[in-house]
């Protein structure tokens, strides 16, 4: 098993997810090496993260024109375990790993139809003010929604 | 020579451009057929169109937060004449073909380093109100800038 | 109704499609004007076209490593009728409009959940030799599959 | 200064780069939050990495049709320090941090025109066999080129 800094025990980690969102690799997402271009996994992470936040009822608040805050990416990373090709159907699993005052650590895992983990990832999302660009503490409703999810997936 | 609806005489048309913006094909823009994916020519058109409008001093007005109008794409098309590959340097030529009351017809031509025309295109840009989504007539300053360019490239 | 060169009667044309493929607008496909960036409609066209060809049993032949030919885009165009925003679900309709010796004219239509046509398009796909880059006549099996679809959607 | 796992001393690290490649943020790379979408930094990393490898005379060997190996991404990560907007010109710095038997650790830094570091990153590139998908040891010429660069940028 690969050594990945944010994964203690690989098989426990794989089992810790419950939510997933499915995507199919587009032809325009492949490259001249014949496989999925490395940059597109982050597009899948974003799509799956947003779908996940929507199921928690959280996304809408940051999408409104009049919202004071937006959600930004603090950091983001991916470990590529297995090449992926055109037309593969991938389940992108998402979970809240930890929650801070103004940010949350989100984990990602992509499984193909054979059940192989093709790539894993993590990244911190941060709530920031549109005015000041500074981070803003989660309010209680967000914290409860994210925490519930965090506990549920343990 | 190919028959392209918006081109009367191919060599006259090739000679009618003066402005161009250069791009280099990114690896992430190729696909598993080993060449530039067809969807990315429109990314190049947009980049070259914006650079062109910037040289006319026109782009800034639509990018300001407080601007009442934005510039949208009415229609857009491309004719692919020659396959393009990773790392090719392309000059994307842009010109104003005709100007209407609220829109302008923009033509595009991509030439590689051998001087071959690899693809051609055209599309209508339209000024629309952010509030109503309806088209808004160009003001005189815009018209003069676009017309001057249109005359200059004849 | 807009005047679109490849559409004779708009409502007849809308009714002439049977196949569609659904997509949801990704956040990464929007731009700073707050809407779907104009370049991404062609990504949707490609995805829907490939799914359509797969249902006809045709796509696989061009994806094999040992295939002598690939499918390329001869030309492509889009008419934008209505702005599209993040998270909208669009049905991308696809049909074969006409078939030539080595190419076929494909039509596209995007409908949102309210049933509004947001954009329309068309483009020619061409079978070309990997060796010579020249167009190759469709063999009978392809022609029958494409023609059947063409007749069915009239 | 932010705590970033792969950076010991931030200002020493900033000074350790010599090579950079410049890009300008495309409008199609922004999103509805008005800034550069988080997924596109990895497109910049890839473009800059390839340009960097080209200056070392290394890229060509992996791009040839008959090459036995390709270069893949083992892992990749980005830390976002400052929002980036349309039309900003960024210098993407690249250096070899460490070299292994079959892989190398590459570091990235993006500076805007004011000299602010907007995002940093790193990732492992791995040489793999096209046939077996297993990693292949660098040959001496590659090792010398990568090592020279590694030493030069210390």
Task: Explain how this protein is built.
The first copy, chain A, has helices spanning 10-15, 41-55, 60-63, 140-152; strands at residues 19-24, 69-80, 89-99, 103-111, 117-129. The first copy, chain A, has four helices and five strands. The first copy, chain A, is globular. Helices cover 25% and strands 33% of the residues of chain A. With 154 residues, the first copy, chain A, is α+β, with helices and mostly antiparallel strands. Chain A has a five-stranded antiparallel β-sheet. Chains in contact: A-B, A-C, A-D, B-C, B-D, C-D. Chain A binds chain D through residues 4-5, 32-33, 37-40, 42-43, 46, 63, 70, 72-80, 83, 133, and chain D through 4-5, 32-33, 37-40, 42-43, 46, 63, 70, 72-80, 83, 133.
């Amino acid at each position: 098993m690969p050594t990945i800094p944010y994964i203690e025990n690989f098989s426990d980690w794989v089992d810790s997810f419950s939510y997933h969102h499915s995507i199919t690799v587009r032809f325009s997402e492949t490259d001249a090496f014949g496989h999925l271009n490395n940059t597109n996994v982050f597009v899948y992470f974003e799509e799956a993260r947003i779908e996940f936040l929507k199921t928690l009822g959280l996304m809408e608040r940051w999408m409104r024109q009049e919202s004071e805050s937006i959600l930004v990416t603090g950091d983001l990373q991916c470990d590529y375990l297995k090449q992926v090709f055109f037309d593969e159907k991938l389940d992108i699993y998402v979970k809240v790993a930890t929650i801070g005052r103004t940010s949350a650590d989100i984990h990602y895992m992509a499984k193909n139809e054979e059940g192989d983990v093709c790539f894993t990832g993590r990244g911190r999302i941060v709530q920031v003010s549109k005015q000041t660009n500074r981070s803003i503490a989660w309010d209680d409703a967000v914290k409860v929604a994210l925490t519930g999810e965090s506990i549920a997936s343990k």
